[in-house]
Design goal:
mainly alpha, 434 Repressor (Amino-terminal Domain)
Length: about 150
């Protein structure tokens, strides 16, 4: 149950900030004290279940969003082209746009290669592949940081 409280706490904080509300403003909308909101956001307490629909309404999200819940039926492979791989032309276009915006030394190439592998459906979530993706991201980040200097 503790993980659920931590997730809920993080999401209350995220959606409150996204909505541009202070703890006090959210508390007023829900009819509680700002201390209650603070306890919820720090996972020291959880809101009563009756507050969840009101919170979802204030944040313009679903109760599922508050818990970062996704039904099993939707947990399958998420693909913008269900049943198909991403067209090669679109991959090239996206890659070219990323390079145009971020790259001045080729540092995005490795990242884009791993992402293309992911979009093609051949990327398996193994420790090795995750490390490859992270290292490619780090390299791209260093290139972006150096470009800004």
């Amino acid at each position: 149950m503790e993980n659920v409280n931590v997730i809920l706490a993080a999401n209350i904080l995220k959606y409150r900030k996204k909505s541009g509300l202070s703890q006090d403003e959210l508390a007023q909308k829900l009819g509680v004290t700002f201390q209650a909101v603070s306890k919820w956001e720090n996972a020291k307490a959880a809101p009563d279940i009756a507050f969840l629909p009101m919170m979802a309404d204030v944040f313009e999200c679903s109760i599922d969003d508050l818990f970062s819940y996704m039904p099993k039926s939707l947990k399958g492979e998420l693909n913008i082209f269900p049943g198909d791989s991403v067209p090669d032309g679109m991959k090239r276009y996206i890659g070219d746009q990323i390079k145009l915006q971020l790259d001045n030394n080729g540092s995005t190439n490795k990242f884009l290669e791993v992402m293309a592998e992911n979009l093609s459906g051949s990327f398996e979530l193994t420790d090795e592949n995750i490390e490859r993706l992270l290292e490619a991201y780090r390299e791209m980040y260093r290139g972006i940081r150096n470009k800004k200097k």
